[in-house]
């Protein structure tokens, strides 16, 4: 109860008025419920808080809606945005009848994944280091209604602004398409905004190491470092929350949508992974790029199950507008040391502790609890079944001749293909009851609704292509 006592003491010391209970749905969206701090006690941490789960997409029906929010006191932070002093706490979802983690709850899934790793005896800790990218704009308009559909994006950094009339004068200094990586002021207009984001993330306990302008104009990245599976998934949720809130405070709007601009790079979420046991890194060895056989098998599992993984790591229809050749998109299922055109990269490290795999196809629309769990389960399957990934490919994969390129497998080309792959390739996820058929079926059904909406809605480009036919 030491963590509980710390929270209760903090409520008194900081004169906290509200305790914000937060949880995540299958799509990765966070929800919250604010409890008056004066009713929060040890019993609440022990028993949890009942709520109606029927309004959460992909969860329970109205006739079976009771669920329990189980507070995790170790996740408590002072929320930096609310006017009233507020502590935010992440929660898992439990079934009232059994007290066990709800099968469709992403956080409970991630907890089961961590337990399964220990059960296998392969390792006791999995570390994850994600790199979520995002865009910030000054003004975003979109509409989809009975007789119209469209969108427009405005930002002072976009190349198109160079010819615009701007009140107070157009100050120029704008990079071109795919020309902004590591840009310095005056090309980079968002240094102070990103610094504010990183400073607040550090205040909230996130381990941060840098920030910078990304390849596309208006695109950015903040350096979140590594942690264990559940804690890193939590940090990604906080990263996104703080990014949205700070952008709004500066009069801008942030999005983790992978491909908001057709003619420029999209936003990814590269994920670095390693497994340790008894304080020792299992991915260090004397093989290719100083990797262990265990690490190669882990890569083999990810490559084998990549298309099923795409359902979790690239879960939006927009994800596949990023996963096309060019624009630095990691569509080819190969591995290589330092080669960024491969979907599995081995970052250079002279220290065995730094040996890890960087999987480059995920994007930040992914639910971090589910995507990290699925990636690890695929890697474990590779280790258990000794799935070797074959030879590394150190050449520029985008420069391969067509006959060679045909031999290299690819990620899914659409969300529909990814969901079909998940439907038929799910057994590796069900080991140790980490995922279940009920959970996977519900997730597939939920995501197919997105596909249906897109398929049934005329796209503006279709008017250009077909209106005069």
Give a description of the structure.
The protein has 469 residues and is of the alpha+beta class. Helices cover 32% and strands 22% of the residues. It contains 14 helices and 18 strands. It has helices spanning 2-13, 42-47, 106-120, 191-203, 229-249, 293-304, 306-313, 319-322, 368-384, 402-405, 415-424, 427-430, 437-455, 460-466; strands at residues 18-24, 30-36, 49-52, 66-71, 77-78, 86-94, 125-137, 139-144, 149-154, 208-213, 219-224, 227-228, 253-255, 269-277, 280-281, 332-337, 342-346, 357-359. Strands 7, 10, 11, 12, 13, 14, 15, 16, 17 and 18 form a ten-stranded mixed sheet that branches. Strands 1, 2, 3, 4, 5 and 6 form a six-stranded mixed sheet that branches. Strand 5 (77-78) and strand 6 (86-94) form a beta hairpin. The longest helix has 21 residues, at 229-249.
Helical proportion, percent range: 25-40%
Strand composition percent: 15-25%
User: What is the residue-mean pLDDT, rounded to a whole number?
Assistant: 93
What global shape is seen?
globular
Could you describe the largest sheet, including whether it forms a barrel?
10 strands, mixed
State the low-pLDDT regions, or none.
Answer: none
CA-based gyration radius: 23 Å
N/C terminus separation: 70 Å
Number of helices: 14
**What structural category do the secondary elements indicate?**
alpha+beta
Please count the beta strands (DSSP E, at least 2 residues each). Answer: 18
């Amino acid at each position: 109860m030491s963590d509980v006592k710390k929270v209760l003491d903090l409520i008194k010391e900081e004169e906290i008025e509200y305790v914000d209970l937060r949880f995540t749905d299958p799509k990765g969206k966070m929800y919250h419920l604010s409890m008056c701090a004066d009713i929060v006690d040890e019993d609440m941490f022990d028993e949890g808080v009942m709520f109606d789960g029927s309004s959460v997409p992909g969860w329970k029906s109205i006739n079976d809606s009771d669920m329990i929010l189980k507070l995790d006191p170790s996740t408590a932070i002072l929320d930096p945005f609310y006017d009233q002093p507020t502590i935010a706490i992440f929660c898992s979802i439990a079934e009232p009848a059994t007290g066990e983690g709800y099968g469709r709850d992403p956080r409970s899934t991630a907890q089961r994944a961590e337990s399964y790793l220990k059960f296998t005896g392969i390792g006791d800790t999995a570390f994850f280091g994600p790199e979520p990218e995002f865009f910030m704009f000054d003004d975003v308009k979109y509409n989809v209604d009975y007789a119209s559909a469209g969108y427009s994006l405005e930002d002072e950094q976009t190349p198109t602004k160079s010819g615009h009339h701007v009140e107070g004068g157009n100050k120029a200094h704008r990079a071109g398409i795919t020309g902004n990586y590591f840009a310095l002021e005056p090309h980079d207009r968002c240094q102070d905004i990103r610094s504010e984001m990183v400073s607040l993330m550090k205040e909230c306990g996130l381990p941060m190491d840098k920030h910078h302008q990304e390849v596309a104009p208006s695109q950015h990245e903040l350096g979140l470092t590594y942690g264990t599976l559940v804690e890193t998934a939590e940090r990604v949720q906080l990263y996104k929350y703080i990014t949205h809130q700070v952008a709004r405070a500066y009069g801008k709007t942030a999005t983790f949508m992978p491909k908001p601009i057709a003619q420029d790079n999209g936003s990814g979420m590269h994920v670095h992974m390693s497994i340790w046991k008894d304080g020792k890194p299992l991915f260090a060895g004397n093989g290719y790029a100083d990797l262990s056989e265990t690490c190669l098998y882990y890569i083999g599992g990810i490559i084998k199950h990549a298309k099923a993984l795409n359902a979790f790591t690239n879960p939006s229809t927009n994800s596949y507008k990023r996963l096309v050749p060019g624009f630095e998109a990691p569509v080819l299922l190969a591995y290589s040391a330092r080669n960024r055109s491969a979907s599995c990269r081995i970052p250079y490290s002279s220290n065995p502790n730094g040996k890890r795999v960087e999987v480059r196809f995920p994007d930040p629309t992914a639910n971090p609890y589910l995507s990290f769990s699925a990636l690890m389960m695929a890697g474990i399957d590779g280790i258990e079944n000794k799935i070797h990934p074959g030879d590394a490919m150190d050449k520029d994969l985008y420069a391969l001749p067509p006959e060679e390129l045909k031999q290299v497998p690819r990620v899914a080309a659409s969300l529909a293909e990814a969901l079909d792959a998940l439907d038929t390739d799910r057994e590796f996820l069900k080991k140790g009851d980490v995922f279940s058929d009920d959970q996977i079926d519900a997730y597939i059904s939920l995501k197919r609704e997105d596909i249906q909406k897109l398929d049934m809605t005329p796209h503006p480009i279709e008017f250009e292509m077909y209106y005069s036919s």
